[in-house]
Fold this protein.
Amino acid sequence: MSTTTWNLDPAHSTAEFKVRHMMISWVKGKFTGLTGTLALHDSDGSQHAVEATIDVATVTTGAADRDGHLKSADFFNVEQFPTITFKSTDVKPAGKGEFSVTGDFTLHGITKPVTFDVEEFSDPAKDPWGNQRIGLIATTKINRKDFDLTYNAALETGGVLVGEDVTLTLDVQFVKAA
C-alpha cells in the first residue's frame, strides 16, 4: 500500500467565509494565501491526511475599511495570529467522492476539533503541462466565539452587528508531487 502526496495550488484555491451582518444579510469574504498538502492512500480513504495553512493577511471582503478592521485586534489580530491552520486527525469516507474530515483547527491562537464535509473530490486530471491535478470542496460551520472572536455591537432595533456562526468553504486544487 502506498501514499501519494499532493501540494495545494494557491493560484487555483480559495478559502471563503460568510457571516450574518446586522441579522439581515450575509457578508462574504475570502482568503487567497493558502498552502498545504494532501496525502492520499491508494486503497484506504480513511488513511488520507491533509494539512493546510491560511495567511490571514490575505483576507478580502471587497471593502478596504472592513478588511482593515478584520485584520485588527478586534477580529483576527493578524500581527499576533498571522495564520489559520488545519491538520486532519480522522478521515471517514461518506460516499463516492465525499469524506468527513475531522482535525485540529487553529484560529486566533485557539485549537479546536472541526469537521469538514468534503464533496466533489475529483478524479485526477492531467493539465496542459503534464501535471496531475485533483480538486475538492470542503465546508464547515464554526462559532467564532469558540475562537475568542467576540467583537460585536448591539443594534438599536435588537440583535447584533455580527453573527456568531461562520460558514467556511474551501474550493481547492492540488498538484501531484514529483
The chain has a mean pLDDT of 85. The helical segments are 64-71.
